Amino acid sequence: MRALQYRAIGSAPVLVEVDQPEPGPGQVLLKVSAAGVCHSDQFLMGLPQEQYDAYGFGLPLTLGHEGAGTVEAIGAGVTGVSLGESMAVYGPWGCGRCHMCAQGKENYCTAAASLGIQPPGLGAPGSMADYLLIDDARHLVPLGDLDPVANVSLTDAGLTPYHAITLSLPKLVAGTTAVVIGAGGLGHVGIQILKAMTPARVIAVDLSEQKLELARSVGADEAMLSDGDTASVIRGLTGGLGASVVIDFVGAQPTVELASTVVAVEGDLTIVGIGGGMLPVGFGSVPYDVAVRTPYWGTRAELMEVLDLARAGRITVETEVFSLADAPLAYEKLHAGTIRGRAVIVP
Description:
Layout: E1 2-6, E2 14-17, E3 28-36, H1 39-45, H2 49-55, E4 61-62, E5 66-74, E6 86-89, H3 99-102, H4 112-115, E7 131-134, E8 140-142, H5 148-151, H6 159-166, E9 177-181, H7 187-197, E10 201-206, H8 209-217, E11 222-225, H9 230-237, E12 243-248, H10 253-262, E13 263-271, E14 291-293, H11 300-311, E15 319-323, H12 327-336, E16 342-346
Parallel strand pairs: 9-10, 9-12, 10-11, 12-13, 13-14, 15-16
Antiparallel strand pairs: 1-2, 1-4, 3-5, 3-7, 3-16, 5-6, 6-8
């Protein structure tokens, strides 16, 4: 079968032929319908050798941690899934037994690292291939009548902002403001989730007018280019109080610094992006009683809820579709910042 692999440090991903996997006991084989392209892939392909080795991903790596497909084959002992069923892949695989996993929080599994359990596309072979091997049927969520191409990105670009936002729902009451920094793949979905689930005013901030246009089209109340006046403008719009919740989907040094200057007293400052920014936290460095969070992905139950929002027509993903053969071009466009919303690979 074909697979898009990252094969050498610093190189571009390439399409290669590999053996088609066979499901063992407890495993499920999917015929891939769609795979999402993510900045996380770009991040790991930009790591130098020593940092890449520290993550333990290994090479070659078949990319793709957002996946959807139909059940092609079922290993011994698997129940609850049927051949031909359309499924979304729940990506943050855990052990299923630790205290976090027992709560459904496999994204925070405390045993995964020691057991060598890695997500597809981030250690295990990913979804940018003709077929994808799933380690356990519990990591599949039925898509039903949802279009896999239009909705595959919700497995990360929907689940990650949903998880981040649900942590802050008690603070997003009427009269409050939420600031979304970065209106790209995750940010434009995050804006829709905020508008669907809260009465808060939503302010989008980005360096790209194209992405701000997207932000406006999906419901942002205000959308502004990031510059030296951004913080003062946001302070002005909030009567000097700042935003009750700031979600940084970029995570670069300038954006985390902006977040710290516009968050309100008792606000939540949530850093989702992996842009390498660092925020010193101590008394006086942020407003009183600010909570700083660095959430990761989300729970399987939350993925179900995200897909339910999509079924209800409350959230959609702006997608640009590429064939598997053209997947390297998708990464080039992602690196250039010219993808509007999310790139999706369709084998």
